[in-house]
Amino acid sequence: MDDMNNRCGQQEMRTEIFGTPAIKLTQALKRAEKFTKGKKMRQAHRERIRCVALTRIIYGKGHWRLAQALANLAHSYLMLLGFPVQAVQHANSAKGTILIGGRPPQVPAEEMKQILSTLLTIYYTLGVAHWMQKNGKESLFNLEKAECVMKELQQTELEETTEQKISEEDLAAALGRACLLQNKPLMATRHFEKAISAVISARGEMAPELIDLYQETAHIEQVKKNHKKSIEYLLQAHCVVLTVHTKFSPQAASAALLLGKAYAASGEQKDAEMAEMYFNESLLACKAALGSGHSQTINALEEFSKWLVHMGKREQAYDLLQESFMSQPDLCSDFSEKAAERFYIMGGICLAEQKVKEGYQWLSKALDASNQGFCFQIREEVGRAFLDHTHKSHVIRGCTMERNGSRIQIEFKKLDESDFISSYRN
C-alpha cells in the first residue's frame, strides 16, 4: 500500500514538473473537485486560480474556456469563501470574455451546452453576490437573466454529461430572496414554492434543504400578516428537522422557537397554548444540546419570558430569568450584553408588581453592565409608575448615556399603574 502511494506521489510530481499545460489543467480540475467534496475550501480555491492561469495559457484571452474558468473562480469566491466583491469582479471578467468572443457560429452541441452553463454560473454568481451586498435591483436583474439561460439550457436535448453548478432550486431560492429584498413578497413566495417543489421532486419530502426554504417562506407569510399560512410552513420545517436531526438538537430548538414566536404573533387566544408548548420545547432542547449558559439558550429564554410578560404571567417570567443567572454566575463574560437585557426585563416586571426598590436595583444593574463597555440599545423611552413606600406617585429623573456609539436612554415618568406597558424590544 505504501509503495502504491509513493508511486502515485512520484507520478504527480513528474506531471507537475514535466507535464504540458493541458495535462496540468486536467489535474488541477480534479484536485479542485476533490478538495471541494472534502470541504477543504481554501485548497479548492487555490486550484481554481491555477485553472484560470493554465486556461489562459492554453486557449488565449478571448476563448469561452477562459470565461468558464473565470466563472468557476467567481463562484468559488462566493460559495467557498463568501467574498461577494471579488466574486462580482471575476464574474464580470468572465462575462466580458464571453461577450468579446461572442457565441461561435458553429460549435458542437456539447460545447454549446457548456457555454450556456458558463453563462448560467456568471449570472447566478452576480445575482447572489449583489444580494449579499444588499443591492436588490442588480441582484434581481442578473438572476432573471440566469433564469432565461436555464430555460434555454433545459431545452437542449443533450445527455447530462456536464455537471451543472447551479440547480433549479438554487436559482429559484435566490430569486425569492432577491424579490424579498425588492419588497416583492408575492413574487418571492412563488419562487420559494418553486424551489420547494424542485427539492421535493429531486430528493423527497424530508430533504434537509427544505428546512431553510420552509422557514424563509414562512417569514414572508408573516410579513404579509398571514399567520395561519406561516405556521403551516413552520410546522413542515419542524417535521423535517425532527426527521433529519434529534429532538434535543440546536436545529430542533431553533425550529421550535420559530413556531413559538409564530403562534404568539397570531394574537389569538387559542394559539397561546401552542405558543407556550413550543417555547418550552425550544428551551428544553437548547439546555439539553448546548447547556444553560449558551447564547442560543439565553435567547430562547428571553423570547419565552417576554411572551410570558405579555400574557400577564410575570412571576413565571421572573423565575425563568432569575434561573438563567444561576447557570451563568460570571457576568463579565461574552453574554453580559444579554445579561443587561435580562436585568432590564426583570426590572420592568418588578415595577409592574409595584416592587419599586427591587425594580430600581435590577435597572441599576442593567446600567452597570452597559457601563462596563457592553453596548445594548433601548430604542424607545420607557414610562414607569414608581410608588414610594407611602404609595404616593413620584418622578425619578431620566438618564441618558452614550458609550461605544450605542445610546441608552431610560426615563421614568409619572403614570397611572394602568398605563404600564412593557416596551422592551429587540
Automatic annotation (TrEMBL):
<dbReference type="InterPro" id="IPR011990">
    <property type="entry name" value="TPR-like_helical_dom_sf"/>
</dbReference>
<protein>
    <submittedName>
        <fullName>Tetratricopeptide repeat protein 23-like isoform X2</fullName>
    </submittedName>
</protein>
<dbReference type="InterPro" id="IPR042621">
    <property type="entry name" value="TTC23/TTC23L"/>
</dbReference>
